[in-house]
Amino acid sequence: MGVRRSDCRAALVFAVLFALQTPVAAQVTIPPHSLQGMLDDLARKTTAVATGVPPAEIPASSDDDLVGALTSLEVSTAPLGTSTGGFTFTFDNSTGTFTRTSQSFGPAFGKRSLTIGKGKASAGFNWLHAGYDSLGGLNLANGDLRPIRDARAADGTPLPYFYSSVRLGLTTDTYVGFVTYGVSNDLDVGVAAPWVRISLSADVGLFGPGDEDLSPPGHLLVLPRTTASGVGDIAVFGKYRLWHHGEGGLAAELQVTLPTGNTSDLRGTGVTRTLVSAIWSRGGKLSPHANLGYELWSKAIPLNVDVFGRNQVEYGFGVELQVHPRATILLDVVGRRLLHGGAVGYEADSFLGITSQALGALPKALDVVSCAPGVKWNVAGKVLVTANTLLSLANRGLRANVIPVIGVEWAF
Q1: Which of 159, 177, 217, 351 is deepest in the core (most CB within 10 A)?
Q2: What average pLDDT does the structure give for the chain?
Q3: pLDDT at 293 (0 to 100)
Q4: CATH of residue 85
Q5: Are 263 and 63 in contact (CB under 8 A)?
Q6: Residue 120 buriedness (CB in 10 A; 0-12 / 13-18 / 19+)
């Protein structure tokens, strides 16, 4: 490439992949063949090309990579499906029989106050497929994602590279199994265990002021499609119905999500999360529901040297319409606000006499809102088949515009 050593300082600013890799006080060992390890290796190769420094002499990146952190957050905090069983019952001690307590089969991603019934249980799974489209509003497929742009020397000295461009292919398939059991007519407990498969590929380009491609030949700065899979963050929950009002009422839910997902393969947050929610619903052929909760995290998740995410607000509302004794049409709106940081955007940056616009995490809350139209169909006995589509309404982080969801549930 013929890069001058005097340009090394400038290149160190913008040759790093997926926004700046920021040092932390305590380095964490990342397996080199994990997804995070491969991203870090690609970042080192990019820096080596830009600076002429051998890759072995470039320090390993921290695990505070923006794309890695946001992927872990999106995979681990995205809605997986409701904890409310589609069939709900109450046990009559005087007659020794169960009676259904709802005409509809309940929401798909929102929550309702009804419990499944004493001694009753439900089990099933959901499959969600996400193909991610943008990061901070920047298209991942066409090269619009530019970690560094408008890089200039403060003294006017030309730089070898004016901006970097990344084409990123990222898809996830999440298979979540869930079980709910009615301890009493008013208390449900359950568990939701996701299995996550992540596929990732990347192609980095380095460009001059005239948009000339200065990338090295031979696909040196390419990460071939790589796949990793395993258990995600497992959640356990309990819901207690506080107030009965016909087919509805008010309930409280406690959910603890454990850090069981491998953070190096972008399947977990690495923190314990405790969500406390209030849930309201009303019965009938047309059944509305709403929930609001606050989730406490055991520690912050660094997103940049000065930015972190910790705790979030979750909410949801919607309606179910019984169109047939065996079919319910539903619409859910679900959202979450990651507090402190998480939104992505450009900020003016100055480093070693170089000025640029750097893409990174901003100290602003990240709002993620989706709507989910769908249907639940009672195919036979107490078996429900569900089909939904999560449509992204707002997300300035890592965004998948459309996520199809298919599920099956059994009650017994």
Answers
A1: 159
A2: 82
A3: 97
A4: 2.40.160.40
A5: yes
A6: buried
